[in-house]
Q: What sequence folds into this?
C-alpha cells in the first residue's frame, strides 16, 4: 500500500513531551500527522509532573525564605499558607500550558484525537469508534506510577493525584526513596505537613553518588522530615481519625494521607502492541534500536515507554531525532551519554556524568575533589545548612567524568557545567577559569587539592 493510501503519514499515540515534539517536527517536515491523547495534551511533565511539582517546590521554600529574612533586617510578620489558593493558581498554569501545547499542534496542522488509541495491526488503530490507518506509528505513552499489592492500597494516592488534594494533609506518609518520593517529602514538609518518609533500602536516592545520598538524607532530617530506612508498608486501614498504616517494623502509624512513590513502569498495557507484533521486555518497556525503531519496521517508540532514561528532555530529544530520521532524511540517534539530572529536594541536588563508584568500576582509579561549605546567604541568615560539591577526574586523561552538587541553585549551576563536560572538560580547563565571586558555583573552579 502506498503512503498516500493511508489516512496519515504518522499517527502518534500519546501527547506528552516526546509525542508532541515528534508530531510538530514531522508536520513541519511535510508529513500528514495525527495524535491521540486520552487525558490531556502535555503529558506527565506538564499536567502532573515537572511543572506543577516545581511550582510546589517554590511554594514550599517560602517558609525558609521568610525565616531567613530576619537575618537581613526584614520583619515579615505572621505568615500563613493557603493550600486552596495555591492549588488554584498551580492548576491555572497547567491549564495555560495545556492550551499552548494544543495551539502549537493545531497551528502545524496536526489533527488531535482526544481519545484512547489501540493498535489493531501494524498500520491500523482503533481510535474511539474510528478505524484509522497510518504509514508510520509512534508510541509515546510514557509511564505510570506503581502501587503495591497490599490490603487497603485503595486509600493511598500516587503522584498523579497529589496535585489535586482537597486540603493540605496534616500528617503525610511518603513511601519510596527515589527522586519523586524525596521531592514530595521536602515539599509537604516545607508547606507545613508532618512528614514521614519510609524507604525499604538505605540510604535514599539509589543510583546517585553516595556522598550526595547521605548528605541529603541528613539535611532532610535536620529540616524535620522523619526518614525511616529499611521500612516498608504492609497494610492500610481506614480509621476514624485518618489512616492506620502497618509497617514492616510492626508499628502502626496514623496519618491523614499516604503517598506511594515507589517507581514507575512503562505505560504499554492495553495498547494492542502484542497484536501488532511489537516486542516488549519483561518490564513492559517497548524494545527499540538506537534510532527508536521497534522490531516492526513502521512502528517506533520514544520516551518513558521505552524505559531508557525517564526524563522529559530525553523524551523531547528522542521525539525530535525520530522525526528527523523518519521524515527529514537525516538519521539521528539520540545521545544518552552524560545526561544531567536534578532532584528538586530540600535542599536540591544536581549531577552529570559518573558517580564515584561508577568511575572506579569503569576507570579503575579516579581523582576526587570536594568542597563542603556554608553558603554566604545561610551565614547571615543564621542557617546551619551546608552545600557540597564534588568533582571526579580521570587521572590518565585529566578529563572530568563526574560533577555533583547539593545545595541552593545546584540544578541551575550544573546545567552550565553539563555543557562543558559533554564537550570534553578537563581539570586543567577548570583550573584556568577565573571564578565569579562570591558564588557557590565558583567552588568547581577553585578545588586545587585532591580529597582522595
A:
Amino acid at each position: 500500500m502506498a503512503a498516500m493510501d493511508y489516512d496519515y503519514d504518522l499517527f502518534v499515540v500519546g501527547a506528552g513531551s516526546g509525542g508532541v515534539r515528534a508530531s510538530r517536527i514531522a508536520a513541519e517536515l511535510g508529513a500528514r500527522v495525527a495524535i491521540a491523547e486520552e487525558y490531556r495534551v502535555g503529558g506527565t511533565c506538564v499536567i502532573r509532573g515537572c511543572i506543577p511539582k516545581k511550582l510546589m517546590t517554590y511554594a514550599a521554600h517560602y517558609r525558609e525564605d521568610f525565616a531567613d529574612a530576619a537575618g537581613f533586617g526584614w520583619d515579615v510578620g505572621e505568615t500563613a499558607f493557603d493550600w486552596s489558593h495555591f492549588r488554584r493558581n498551580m492548576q491555572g498554569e497547567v491549564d495555560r500550558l495545556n492550551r499552548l501545547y494544543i495551539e502549537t499542534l493545531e497551528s502545524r496542522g496536526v489533527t488531535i484525537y482526544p481519545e484512547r488509541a489501540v493498535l489493531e495491526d501494524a498500520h491500523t488503530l482503533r481510535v474511539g469508534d474510528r478505524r484509522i490507518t497510518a504509514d508510520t506509528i509512534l508510541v509515546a505513552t510514557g509511564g505510570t506510577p506503581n502501587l503495591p499489592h497490599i490490603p487497603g492500597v485503595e486509600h493511598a494516592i500516587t503522584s498523579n493525584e497529589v496535585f489535586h488534594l482537597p486540603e493540605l494533609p496534616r500528617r503525610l506518609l511518603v513511601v519510596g526513596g527515589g527522586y519523586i518520593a524525596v521531592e514530595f517529602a521536602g515539599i509537604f514538609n516545607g508547606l507545613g505537613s508532618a512528614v514521614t518518609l519510609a524507604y525499604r533500602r538505605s540510604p535514599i536516592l539509589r543510583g546517585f553518588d553516595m556522598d550526595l545520598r547521605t548528605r541529603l538524607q541528613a539535611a532532610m532530617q535536620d529540616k524535620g522530615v522523619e526518614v525511616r530506612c529499611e521500612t516498608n508498608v504492609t497494610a492500610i486501614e481506614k480509621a476514624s481519625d485518618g489512616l492506620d498504616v502497618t509497617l514492616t517494623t510492626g508499628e502502626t502509624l496514623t496519618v491523614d494521607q499516604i503517598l506511594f512513590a515507589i517507581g514507575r513502569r512503562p505505560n504499554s498495557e492495553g495498547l494492542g502492541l502484542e497484536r501488532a507484533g511489537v516486542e516488549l521486555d519483561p518490564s513492559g518497556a517497548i524494545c527499540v534500536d538506537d534510532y527508536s525503531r521497534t522490531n516492526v519496521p513502521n512502528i517506533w517508540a520514544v520516551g518513558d515507554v521505552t524505559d531508557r532514561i525517564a526524563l522529559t528532555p530525553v523524551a523531547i530529544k528522542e521525539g525530535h531525532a525520530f522525526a528527523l530520521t523518519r521524515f527529514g532524511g537525516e538519521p539521528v540517534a539520540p545521545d544518552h551519554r552524560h545526561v544531567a539530572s536534578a532532584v528538586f529536594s530540600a535542599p536540591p541536588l544536581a549531577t552529570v556524568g559518573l558517580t564515584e563508584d561508577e568511575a572506579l568500576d569503569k576507570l579503575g582509579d579516579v581523582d576526587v575533589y570536594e568542597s563542603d561549605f556554608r553558603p554566604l546567604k545561610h551565614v547571615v541568615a543564621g542557617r546551619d545548612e551546608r552545600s557540597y560539591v564534588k568533582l571526579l577526574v580521570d587521572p590518565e586523561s585529566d578529563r572530568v567524568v563526574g560533577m555533583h552538587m547539593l545545595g541552593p541553585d545546584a540544578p541551575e549551576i550544573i546545567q552550565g557545567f553539563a555543557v562543558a563536560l559533554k564537550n570534553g572538560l578537563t581539570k586543567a580547563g577548570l583550573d584556568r577559569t577565573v571564578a565569579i565571586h562570591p558564588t557557590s558555583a565558583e567552588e568547581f573552579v577553585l578545588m586545587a587539592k585532591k580529597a582522595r
Observations:
- The longest strand covers residues 130-139.
- Residues 142 and 304 are 4 Å apart (CA to CA).
